[in-house]
């Protein structure tokens, strides 16, 4: 019997004989990567994606194909036993040569099997669990977790176009399950040693998660563990994402697939119980796919890939003293700013300076694409899953309002937030604020502009967001008083671009932009 994969492979046999370029990407069938709700989940997801890409790249090299992107140093082939490669591989791979869908599928399947086997083996050996009660569930996820997309053509552009066309023909199977759903995503069954059986034994599930939480982090406190908490209920793929960040398991998969500690990101001082605000950021290069289509020769694509990876590596190195970069492999990155033991409390005024440095660093990389970033300054009591969701929303907003922007969101412990989205070039306007006493910089008193704004809004001199008719005259004049007439004129003349508004004459987006700038400035730039 011919399988769907074999049928597609047969249809490609003639194409691959003449194809010059091959493009490969892959994705989880249930989206369990992007549904990550904790920092450790995202780190584990990044490790998995990087490792599977690394396996495909390695298979292409063995077949004497030229891997154009991601760019790899000659010294890294064929072993490629380098942590920067294993933990920074984008999952879109461009190859020059005959590399079939079956080749890609076999490489990914081999890598995923290694990951699954390492996780199952550790559970069996360290928790003394018999495979029989959940063998079928693990097997289904080993076979059906991923779909591979493949495209080919005589040019880079035609290969990418072929890839997008083939993506429309989906050929995957979603594993079914019995019993309760995961507490993280709400999808898939709760992983436990007898999950293949009908019905749910709550006591058995509770016992399993208590044991695994304690074994992974014996020194942690109940429901405050480094890897898995006693009250969590994970599906098999979610469990795998956590387990691959555990050192012994990661090293069993690959000697360089190490897992750094995330305790410092929990924002707690173990001795005093004091907690502090932290900065979380998520960035993504704009329209990378379109940019790649414009790069018509191999050298240009390879150079672009090399530049991206070099920027990511330097970014991680430079950021070490400020916090942790969770991933920065391709054009996207995620990280957290937090204090160290010497200065555990971050100065919020450093945030704007760091964001400006980030934009400068991106431009100095000569990458040829712009950057959109979501930055969240989060209160100490906000759960990680909420902070990460706000990061995603902030980055999405920066892109939806025109790209080449940053959205800064100040997220309070009660879940409320203030935000401001601006093109990068106007972020520095925050440094030009002058208070009533003509003080600027670190000496400026942001309470002046903040309280004046509140009074004008209370008197409806600046209309509320719910007003049907809006006049921006007062808001603009008010802005000029504190930030300068020249900047007020620029804001008025370029309001459509700066605010991302659809209508160049609309007053409401301009007022909201000013309002957001002042509220965010007061939170991050105040000297008190």
TrEMBL record:
UniProt keywords, alphabetically: Antiviral defense, Nucleotide-binding
Single GO BP term: defense response to virus
Keyword Nucleotide-binding recorded: yes
Superkingdom of the source species: Bacteria
Location of the GGDEF domain: 276-411
Molecular-function annotations in GO: nucleotide binding
Pfam families per the UniProt record, alphabetical: Cas10-Cmr2_palm2 (PF22335), Cmr2_N (PF12469)
SUPFAM superfamilies in the record: Nucleotide cyclase (SSF55073)
InterPro entries: Cas10-Cmr2_palm2, Cmr2_N, CRISPR-assoc_Cmr2_N, GGDEF_dom, Nucleotide_cyclase, Rev_trsase/Diguanyl_cyclase
The name this protein goes by in its record: GGDEF domain-containing protein
